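Narrative progress, year one. The postdoctoral researcher (J.K.) led the effort to move from monomer predictions toward full complexes, under supervision of the PI. The following entry was the first complex the group processed end to end, covering 428 residues in total.
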Amino acid sequence: MRIKMLMRCTSGTVEARESLAAASMRLASDSGGCLVVTDGGRLAGVLTPADARAAGPSTVPSLAVHEWPAFTSRLTVADAMRRDPVVVPPDATPGDAAHALRTRGHRAAVVVDGSEVVGVVTTTDLLGTLVQRLERETPPRLSRLLVAVSLVASTSRRCRSRTPLDLALGIARRHRATLTLLHVMRGLSLRVAEGLPAGVDADVQRWRLAEVRAALIRRVPPEDRSVVRVDVRAGDVVEGVLNGAATAGAELIVMGGRPGASLVRETMRRAPCPVLAA
Amino acid sequence: MFRRMLVLLDAGLVGRRVVPWVRRLLVPVHGDVRLLVVLPPGRTVTAGSRTLIYADQGEDAARDAVGVALAVVAAQLRDDGLAVSSEVRFGDPGVDALEVAQAWGAEAIALVDVPAHGARRWLTRSVADAIVQKTPLPVLVARASGQRAA
């Protein structure tokens, strides 16, 4: 991999004496880009969105009121740019560019072929290469799954041979992931709760939670119990699944239930990660 | 654990958001992926008595345009060691996806749920809803936005 395969076009070239506000507008229209700054046709620096922001008005309102708009509007590119930019040839390796940027504390390097600017490479571009390399060395895996199970429906109506739990256990085994087994049960009905003496309803609820937890653990094959965590919640099912997924940091929710059921649909719409409807 | 997954994409390839998740699920099992794009059927465009574009010409142009984007997605997945094939169809995505899944022997379907807005949300059913309701296969559904990246 060489820089010429990684570099991007510059967002353009600006003169050092141009207004910073105008340069910022150009940067805003090109996500992740940066401007090459010249002074009399000579490479003078590089301007990234972060440099432009740092030179602009404070983002803290109580400080910004003391800044004179007339002063900030008079700022030029030369006031904000990184002078003496990191320059790399197109045949440099990403490692060379990363090393130079890290040593100098810059965010973007200018790619120069002879005396011509042919592109720029930013720390984000270099991070992308690093991520690709890491993923190639270690194949991507899921590390945390959540399966929402019902105690009533022991088998999925859709995948008759497999329950959502079977499917989730299969994925967890293959990916060596941890699996959170979640059941959300509704609270005691008002009629039942009101008929119980004070304090007993809480005991009943605790007993129910313990019973459900034990029933869920019985469903997991003994060899898988070390990677399964059981989470039993009371309340609204969709909220319970979403909160359970957030708590577990789940990367995938496996969910059974009636095809097209509103619970599955609602979970799909609001889930922080993809949902596998099984 | 499934190995053969049908990935339903759209013309704008918003559905590409599900591809990283497919990759994460299938790379450890050296899976098999079929990329499917179902476009609306072409229409003959006329101006007065003159025919500007015939339906099949429009479909060919659309097929070529999507084919280029599909090839990029397919190449990325092949780099990860997955077996990839792709297909472009014209029709109803909800119906065609199920047909292809059955004919190809898919073990799961992956797609992105693009929710409708306004009144359409209540009047029409999304493609994801239609597929989840009808298919006996597991369906991996990612959202078009607001969800963690793979």
